[in-house]
Amino acid sequence: MKYNMLLIIFPLVMVGCSFSTSTESLTDEIITPDIEKIEDVGSEMITHHHMYDNMDRGNHDYVDKTLVIDPNESEIFRGDVVFFINEDGEKDLSRVVALPNETIKISNSQIFINDKKLDTFYGKAHRVGLDKDSYFKMMDKEGNDYDKEVMKKVFDYNLKEKKLAENEYYVISDDWLRGNMKVLNRETVIGKVIGYTK
């Protein structure tokens, strides 16, 4: 009798558990990987020549470009590239993936926000614009010398759930190997990158 009860209860528990895991995803229909060229830079804008490749998606995005930053944009959205002061007092930039009061988790380099999969071009690790399989195939086919173990760690990265405070954002550079992955306090943000001049 006890065995029969277990046979009945166990499937019910398993079905109940399956409903607690969200299959919903979070998309971004507005932000694209492209960076806009700004012809007329207003006097209220800030310019910054960015030399680092932390935002490279395979087209040298943001690299060796004079970026235009709007310091007056008070509202920051998911997907925005922000210009900020880092821990060393230097100016840096990265993409916002999680907003204040949200919970972020990363599982095998896939970002989840409040248990929803971040299903957008910046929601998962890549290297020079390529996903894990495409990257390793390309590197091996071309006979490139690279540290495969380091790249496996990038593509298999995990972050335990982290709840952000009301003045915190979570930022990740577009190239996970080369840039930031951290909590960013709103007070350190100088402005939003809106494009480049040259």
TrEMBL record:
InterPro entries: LexA/Signal_pep-like_sf (IPR036286), Peptidase_S26 (IPR019533)
Signal sequence segment: 1-20
Pfam families for this protein: Peptidase_S26
Domain Peptidase S26: 60-175
Alphabetical UniProt keywords: Signal
Name recorded for this polypeptide: Peptidase S26 domain-containing protein
